[in-house]
Amino acid sequence: MGQERNTGIEIGLYTLGDICVDPTTGQTVSAGQRIKEIMAAATLADEAGLDVFGVGEHHRLDYATSSVPVVLSAIAQKTKRIKLTSTTTVLSTVDPVRLFEDFATLDLLSDGRAEIMAGRGAFIESFPLFGYDINDYDALFSENIELFLKLNENERITWEGNFRSSLKNAEIAPRPLQNQIPVWVGVGGTPQSAARAGRLGVGMALAILGGDPVRFKPLVELYRNAGTAAGHDLEKLKVGVTGHGYISKTTQQAKDEFYPYYSNYWYSVNLQRGMTGEKISKSDFEYMTGPDTALFVGSPQQIVEKILRQHELFGHQRFMAQIDIGGIPFKKIAEGIELLATEVAPIVRRETSK
Fold this sequence. Notes:
alpha/beta; TIM Barrel; eight-stranded parallel beta barrel; two-stranded antiparallel sheet
């Protein structure tokens, strides 16, 4: 098992901890229950041999996970091997020193399993909450990622920037168990973000939530070109793909079961963004889940084919699915984890290790 885990691409799960009404029962779980279910999902994923588990950050009442390092630290005590990452940390509105200390502590608690995926954030509620100006959206991210990477390399640091107090020979403690905490940047589709991830020499995690994945191929090429031009080793320029998924015994069963939750999820997200509209129609959903799209919904065989098609396009090193959206009950999430680990992962690992 151990040897099989390390060949081919890494396969994992991530959650944003959304709290939605279950459209089939009208029930809503509490934030406490949602966090307990996330911990249970991570434990199942670890026991089933998946490679990585991610928890995302939001600061709203309809999400349960605002304090990601705390949740991951709790998961660390219940798991043995699975890597633990943020998906994503909103780096523009967090102090990089505090962030480094939190994840270095997680790394020590987990025996070297901590990672960070950083992003600018699709939601902006953290800016007023923590006293940042939304007009500094990109400048904050640029400064904070560069500072974080320096903290990752040095026990003591002298540094000066525009958004936080300067550091003069400051001790940065504790140090992680790993030589450095692995860092990825989440990229939603902008060329500037892909090029920046390459220049920095960090991993790039693509959020591919729908449509034809071929449109992301130029971003991967841009990332690798920018990385090698900046002097980084191509072997170290890792690409990850993240996306929504739902697995069942047959593709039709997966579509029938997932449709009410997926439609519910996007209706909720659009409401949060101040947009109102119709729920996704059955015919639109049928198109969105087609064999050539990036939505990972179907039988294990269908999911394998979609992952392998994307691997042909990108040659990526990691795939992570979000399978718990829109109020899906935990029983269904657990079944999905089992199918991903036992019927999808072995084939994908074998095919991508050739």
